[in-house]
Structure of Putative ATPase:
Amino acid sequence: MSEDLFGGGVDAAAGAVAAVGTTGGSLSDADRPGLPLAVRMRPRTLDEVVGQGHLLAPGSPLRRLAAGEPMSVFLWGPPGTGKTTIASVVSRQSGSKFVEVSAVTAGVKEVRAVLDQARRDLARGERTVLFVDEVHRFSKTQQDVLLPAVENRLVTLVAATTENPSFSVISPLLSRSLLLTLKPLTDADVSGLLDRALVDARGLAGASTLDDDARNTLLRLAGGDARRALTYLEESAAGAAATGSAVITTDVVERAVDRAAIRYDRDGDQHYDVISAFIKSVRGSDVQASLHYLARMLGAGEDPRFVARRLIILASEDIGMADPTALTTAVAAAEAVAMIGMPEGRITLAHATIALALAPKSNAVVAAIGAASADVAAGRVGLVPPHLRDAHYAGAKTYGHGQGYRYAHDEPHGIAAQQYLPDELVDATYYVPTDHGNEAAVAARLARIEERLGRSASRAAR
């Protein structure tokens, strides 16, 4: 099943392949009573899709696709942003048959069966929109099966992925398709959907109202996922009605989703308080507190990329040379989160959080660049020593540039004893390593280097 906006698609039998024989595709029975609110409120046209205005301008690929222009597209974005819905609406508006294949369970045999049927339908004048959910899970062999169908426009391929297709989709298939990036839904987008569901005849039809605190709670718990927001709204409305009330309050929402509201406001003081506590806990090497605040942020819908960026900063600011691998770990975590998205990304962030919390700490790098920057800001720059100046141009030797320069690789231990700093700063010391972790070994090496350079290793930092 799809993870996307109002997803639900069509359950597949024997391999998770399903073809819907109506042009409405998986939206064709959205008005049937008894369906979940998130299904009933699926957009019926592209104009009802929210949060993706950059893809819906007049003349845009999606507009042309909905008008029946044959093309293939990849929809890349986080869960709950509308990938399945867009594919279904495109099939409805273009008058095409909608067929959904899940890459989780469909194999080469099932994909070929769908394409064979699409070929027969095309011979009768009926076009097929083939929606492949989680296409990043398709093997190279499965993707190769799709290639001729896309190249010959046997089907209109709409493929959805939460991972960067550049890393997970074969280049021949990607080069024959358009890549459209869906943006995460904002609180305003999701709030608008809640308003629509409260009054729409397909939704709650005015039977319930939502107070402001409850709305904010729903937005926090939904975390930008439209389907989740509508599911919580439906359960909350049922909970309020069971008590004889038409007003949905925060208490009702909390009971409906069977969890306490997370006291965290992404745009207010709590946002800054919790991220501050998170960073200070990692800096203080308290793994348990670090994980608590991480879970608290992610549970409230905080952007995981924001958390990853803060860990990258912390890796240099608070760990530095005490464990040089910390920065590599943090950067790798950020890249992984960008590639795989949520919810799996929370595991990667936890991995990085634990590693950084347990790492030895040092702010010597911060102190070093701070001291060097202070000298530069104060105008203590001086002239570059002549032997270090560029000598690769005509007339350089006339000025003495490069004369007397000693090439480090020709010297014992690869260290050339000569003056590197300007005269005004010849005794300056910026980096003073601690004895924490790897930096203890760095300190010992630095002392030997300073000695070979003819400088005192015991100079105090300025």
The chain has four domains: 17-181, 187-256, 269-358, 364-452. The chain has 18 helices and eight strands. Residues 17-181 form a domain with the Rossmann fold fold (CATH 3.40.50.300).
